[in-house]
Design brief:
By secondary structure, this protein is of the alpha+beta class. The protein has helices spanning 3-12, 21-31, 143-148, 175-193, 215-224, 245-248, 267-280, 295-299, 326-346; strands at 37-40, 46-50, 59-65, 70-76, 81-87, 99-104, 108-115, 135-137, 156-159, 164-166, 169-172, 201-207, 228-236, 257-260, 284-287, 307-314, 322-325. The chain has an eight-stranded mixed beta sheet with strand order 1-2-12-3-13-16-14-15, with helices on both faces. A six-stranded antiparallel beta barrel has the order 4-5-8-7-6-9. A three-stranded antiparallel beta sheet has the order 10-11-17. Strand 6 (99-104) and strand 7 form a beta hairpin.
Length: 351
Amino acid sequence: MVSKEFLYEYLNAYSPVAQEGEGQKVWTDYISNYVDEIHHDHYGTAYGIVKSGVEQPKKVVIEAHCDEISWMISHIDSDGYVYVVRHGGSDHQIAPSKTVVVHTRKHGKVKGVFGWPAIHVRKDKEQHPSLDNIFIDVAAHSKDEVAEMGIEVGNIVTFDDQLFEMGDYYVGKALDNKIGGYIIAEVARRLKEDGVKLPFDLYVVNSVQEEVGLYGARMIANNIKPDVALVTDVCHITKSPMYNVKKDAETIGGKGCAIEHTAQNHRQLIELFRECGDEKGIDYQLTIGSYGNDTMGFFLADGGIPTAIIATPLKYMHTTVEMAHKNDVESVIKMFIESLKNLNDKTTFLK
């Protein structure tokens, strides 16, 4: 499988929060060609290890998260309509008219739609979708019919959309942050094929449950106990409507990866990224970042593991049309590779 085929297969695989196994299987099948070992923790975080051959090696993590936002069924009424709560940061305002997949225990994937009454029959034509009024229609007429489909309270629901390309952008659901899983797999592939030998063991980690509390990163940080963790996730393209660049910093699609400045992003690692970018001609942008990504899992683990993030700028986060510029994806890959190759020389963490 070439990397573009992997990208499509992985991004289109379902990976809802706490049920990430389908996507993780695609990911581990691919990276197994480029790492020496594959492991999983109890909750489904997957990682590959590239062995250095060094005695008592240091451990360096590159990490993304694999889970996609979703919904969870909370109620089924007597007429067969299904109600949900958020499972991660799902946006109720985009739900009406979207097709969905209900992930059932007995019958696998079942189709449904978020229904919504026509504008000309609503008493309030400006009524907005809310968690109180959105619902899923699975073409059933009773609660018993819904049960016969295997649908029950606790089932996870995901939007049913596929990755596509539009101009210079990848477009689809769950680029937050499955594009990161593609990036770290591509880093492992290029290091292997280019014959790069790193002086530390490299852990290529695809974590679960970021969208509900950074849980996978917190668990795996305490499991692996790395010396350094380099994370990738997405950030916002703020040069698009309805953003405030004075507040959120200016980030532009196609202008390179984003280096985030927040308290958990270690200044030595920020400097490492910038020096590598300057020396190798890798485009990058500066942004202020957030505290809501997996760097926090490493920052707070085991006394504080040095960490920082290289982010992929993204349009329309937490929708089904998230957009990542191909140049920015390539920039993140190159920045990871060069940073790993220079980690020993430009930081003090592995001395």
